[in-house]
Amino acid sequence: MRKISERLKNARISEGFCTICGEFGRLSKDHVPPRCAINIQPMLQKTISEYYSSEEIKPINAHHGSIFKTICRDCNNNILGSLDSEIKKPIEYFLGKLRIYLSGSCYSNIIKVPFNSNLFLKAMVGHLLAATSVESCKNELTESEFYTPLRKFVLGQNEDIKLTHDFYYWFYPNKLQITSQLASFYNDGNFCLCCCMHFFPIAFLITLKERGTYPAQATKLELDDKNLYFNMSPINFKYANFPFVPLYGNQMMLFSSGYTCVSYPRIK
Ligand SMILES: [Zn+2]
After folding, report:
1. Beta 165-171 vs 202-208: how paired, if at all?
2. Distance between alpha carbon 66 and the CA centroid of its chain, in Å?
3. Which segments of the chain have a pLDDT < 50?
């Protein structure tokens, strides 16, 4: 019998510790990528190691898109729900500009997208915190140099997130949706901890401040930015899945497969 993806156990939880506020209670379902930013369609899911493995592993059917049951109803409805339009508006604007760009009537390789930086960032970080393994919900949250400031930022208790973290984004041209909690990427002397979320048309990466590794086309997000700037040059598309890219020279990476998720359309 074919082995089934370990993502299966992620659907089988009803109570646990919320990965944003840390309260214990009933867990609710969050779409990651957020449902406001994509067309919900039946997807198949695996962990990233299973997806790239040569072993045949049966994926999970995700009938209503990519869902994570890792946050409480309060965080889901009152925090993330109220912020979803801050992702929806710039994504829709970007898709409109992308259509014009692909029609060949643009002379610049940069697409500029107006947005509310603080609210967009809170929404993206919140959904990314939710995109984890249910293992994270089984024990009380512990203090973490990487996660505690991010959780407090989403909860509105830490407006100084730029003191501890950097955020990068770039144009993501692929159908494959990827989420990953802490991955470690070693590049020629620099050791980078990161978590990421990739869905068409954007890839989003969180790193510790001034310790990040990121692809050449990435733009750093600042809290006082008025626009997102996407570098559309196709020369760097091969690194669009960063950090899940082929390794060269003195590069290594380490991640926990159960904390990653790859979703792809059932009908290709
Ligand atoms: Zn919560």
Report:
1. antiparallel
2. 12
3. none
Closest CA to 79 of 12, 147, 18: 18
Q: Ligand 1 centre and the CA of 12: distance in Å?
A: 19
Can you say how many angstroms the Cα of residue 130 is from the centroid of all Cα atoms in its chain? 9
The pLDDT of residue 219? 97
Q: What is the pLDDT, as a whole number, of residue 181?
A: 94
Measured in angstroms, how far is the CA atom of residue 155 from the centroid of ligand 1?
Answer: 9
For residue 167, report the distance from its CA to the centre of ligand 1, in Å.
23
Instruction: Report which DSSP code applies to 146.
Output: T
Residue 245 CA to ligand 1 centre (angstroms): 33
Give SS3 for 236.
Answer: helix
Report helix, strand or coil for 232: coil
Distance CA 72, CA 250 (A): 42
Four-residue CA torsion sign, 6, 145, 239, 217: positive
Contact 137, 18 (CB under 8 A): yes
